[in-house]
């Protein structure tokens, strides 16, 4: 797109979640937009992603409420991806496989999957209090 999403006060990035009940669906619709300020597009260009879990034989129709929020679209790509889950939890084989990314744009389910893999692999919850942040003394 060559413009930010309308009605976002010209935000250079944003995330919108359309609740499932507002669009008579079983799954929410996720809209995420980033821009040239994130070094992912040329100056004054914006990349928007609209995603959901497919529920019908017409996936593009399912994301229409999200697409309608975007305003004019310069170029659009539509892709449907399968979601995969491992067949076993890896405890016996010691092979720990993550699930595919889902439709969410805030990565909560992906983070929970990583924490679950850690637990299955170690038998312990990840302890965030042990993470230490240090600043590099050298300036680059």
Question: How would you explain this protein's 3D organization?
Answer:
This is Rab GDP dissociation inhibitor. It is found in: Cytoplasm. Belongs to the Rab GDI family. Helix content is 18%, strand content 13%. It has 140 residues and is an alpha+beta fold. The protein folds into 2 domains: 56 residues, no CATH class; 44 residues, no CATH class. It has a 3-stranded antiparallel β-sheet. The mean pLDDT is 94.
Topology:
Blueprint: E1 14-18, E2 29-35, E3 46-51, H1 59-62, H2 64-69, H3 108-122
Antiparallel strand pairs: 1-2, 2-3
Uncertain runs: none
Radius of gyration: 19 Å
Report the sheet-strand fraction.
5-15%
Q: What is the count of structural domains? A: 2
Question: How many β-strand stretches?
Answer: 3
Which of globular, elongated, flat, extended, rod-shaped describes the shape? globular
Helix content: 10-25%
What's the SSE pattern?
EEEHHH
Q: Strands of the largest sheet, in order across it? A: 1-2-3
Distance between the termini: 34 Å
Task: Give the biggest sheet.
Answer: 3 strands, antiparallel
Total helical elements = 3
* Helix/strand class: alpha+beta
- Output mean pLDDT: 94
